[in-house]
Design a protein that fits this description.
155 residues, alpha+beta, PH-domain like, 2 domains, three-stranded antiparallel β-sheet
Length: 155
């Protein structure tokens, strides 16, 4: 793999949030040093205030398990998007959807069971708290991490 491909891979990892700014900076400097090139000036690595907001995440939908109560026919869905989360509660006739921006999320609680978790999302606005039962524990942790990262970037 050539230097350009390596740098592109590093950049993709950094954009997905798998590398911190410091890890990205160190890895890039090491790659450039291996090629015998001087690393760029430290100012070029400094994150700008607009950089975190420009980071886009891939939209992902999490569904509650059909093994949990109330989700046999119409499992709840929570979609993580760039501008917030979308909660969808299905019903026999229609559905209810609610979009909550990351800035409006006041608290996020997880109650873990053996395999499944119950998630409670409270907002700072006028909407009712969102309660999702029957998410897999790993999915609940992923959602919590994304919300934590997005709220940190918005601050």
């Amino acid at each position: 793999m050539n230097l350009t491909d390596e740098l592109r891979n590093l950049s993709e990892l950094h954009q997905r949030g798998q590398l911190t700014d410091a890890e990205f900076t160190n890895a890039k400097a090491q790659l450039l040093a291996q090629e015998g090139r001087p690393p760029p000036a430290p100012e070029s690595f400094a994150p700008t205030s607009a950089a975190p907001a420009a980071v886009r995440i891939k939209e992902k939908t999490y569904r509650s398990s059909r093994w949990s109560s109330g989700n046999l026919f119409f499992p709840d869905r929570l979609t993580i998007a760039n501008d917030g989360i979308v909660f969808r509660k299905g019903a026999l006739f229609g559905s209810n959807e609610e979009h909550i921006s990351y800035r409006a999320i006041a608290s996020f609680r997880i109650k873990n069971g053996i395999f499944l978790s119950n998630v409670n999302v409270e907002t700072s606005g006028g909407s009712q708290p969102i309660f999702i039962n029957g998410l897999w524990k790993s999915a609940a942790r992923e959602i919590q991490e994304v919300i934590r990262l997005r709220q940190g970037n918005a601050a």
